[in-house]
Amino acid sequence: MIDVISFLPAKRKQTSGGWISVNAPCCVHRGESADRRLRGGIKNTDTGWSWHCFNCGYTASFVLGRTLTFKARKLLAWLNVPQEEIERINLESLRHRNIEGILNDRQQAVQPTAIEFEECDLPADTEELTDTAQAYLINRGITLDYPYLSKKGTRTGVVVPFTYDGQIVGHTTRFLDDRTPKYIQDIQPGYVFGTDLQRNNWQTVIVTEGVFDALSINGVAVLHADINDAQARLVRSLEREVVVVPDQDLPGMRLVERAVELGWSVSMPDWPDDVKDVNDAVICMGRLGALLTIMQARETSKIKIEIRKKWLMKKLKKY
Ligand SMILES: [Zn+2]
Question: How far is the centre of ligand 1, averaged over its atoms, from the C-alpha of 308 (Å)?
Fold first, then answer.
């Protein structure tokens, strides 16, 4: 592994979450005051490392076998790593690219639809997940094995980084008070949340509307009640059966129409009256129970989906 730890300032702290904390070099380059409270964090990942500044929000990541990204290069330069050394790290990384990586590149070359997102920053002023934020997630039936953060300040919240291929390309913050807006999001066009949660050997991908729906059953989320063309391409690129589970409300019915247009399966389970979406279902009947109802209610035929939709709209009108 290419050692970046040795380039870090000598003053360091190891946190329980696996971060090595140092005074962040990024903030002063981004119009913020210098960090003197060890708010820069670097963490080793399976395939490299990722940087996150809890002060100014700067993120950067490195994956062995890939070219150094623009943001990783900037970070290394701010850490006073000499330019020749940065180039050496880049070459050393590419030397580790395996046959599979080279084949993937070739495949991407003949497949111009390969989707790319810009690496981006997280909100400023975050910290490791607080007990309150953790309790909120547990209450919603969501497992904690995802790199959530907490937002500090006048409105506290849970920050869910949006990743794609292991890189941070957006985020959403769910505030924990009752004020509006409940969410603040930074989304790139065509982004679908949760592709990184999918495993190679799974045969089905469950498409939901919200981040917490996706997180509670390891599905993906289109983040509104529609699926645009770029999102459809991204979901298709997973090459597996697609089952769309709309929220059980009127906007959700638009999602059903779009799914039919795309030729995907739709599932509208007969959930208890107060269960309106996948996350509600997980809270009510557990992850396995919710998944079972989803798989049992899935329909592929256009006519059967239409009948089911009418049934659901009738049920909605009762309330
Ligand atoms: Zn910073």
Answer: 51
> For the segment 253-304, what is each residue's pLDDT rounded down to a tens digit?
999 999 999 999 999 999 999 999 999 999 999 999 999 999 999 999 999 9
Of 66, 107, 112, 71, which Cα lies nearest the Cα of 89? Answer: 66
Give the pLDDT score at 112.
Answer: 45
Measured in Å, residue 83 CA sits from the centre of ligand 1 at 21
CA of 218 to the centre of ligand 1 (A): 31
What is the CA(109)–ligand 1 centre distance, in A? 35
CA 17 – ligand 1 centroid, Å: 19
Please tell me the distance from the alpha carbon of residue 254 to that of residue 119, in angstroms, as a whole number: 31
Query: CA-CA distance, 207 to 224, in Å (whole number)?
Result: 11
Give residue 195 CA to ligand 1 midpoint distance, Å: 28
Handedness of CA 211, 216, 221, 226 (dihedral sign): negative
What angle do the packed helices 302-317 and 250-262 form, to 10 degrees? 180
Which candidate, 138, 189, 128, 131, places its Cα nearest to that of 164? 189
pLDDT of residue 3: 77
Question: 75 alpha carbon to ligand 1 midpoint, in Å?
Answer: 10
Q: What is the pTM of this model?
A: 0.79
First CA to last CA across the chain, in angstroms?
59
Residues 6+ apart with CB under 8 A from 210: 221, 223, 247, 277, 278, 279
Beta strands at 13-14 and 20-22: parallel, antiparallel or unpaired: antiparallel
Please give the distance, rounded to the nearest whole angstrom, from the Cα atom of residue 236 to the centre of ligand 1: 37
> Do residues 245 and 208 touch, judged by C-beta distance below 8 A?
yes
Structure letter (DSSP) for residue 66: S
The region of weakest confidence among 48-57, 87-96, 110-119 is 110-119
Q: Is 276 exposed, middle or buried (0-12, 13-18, 19+ CB in 10 A)?
A: middle
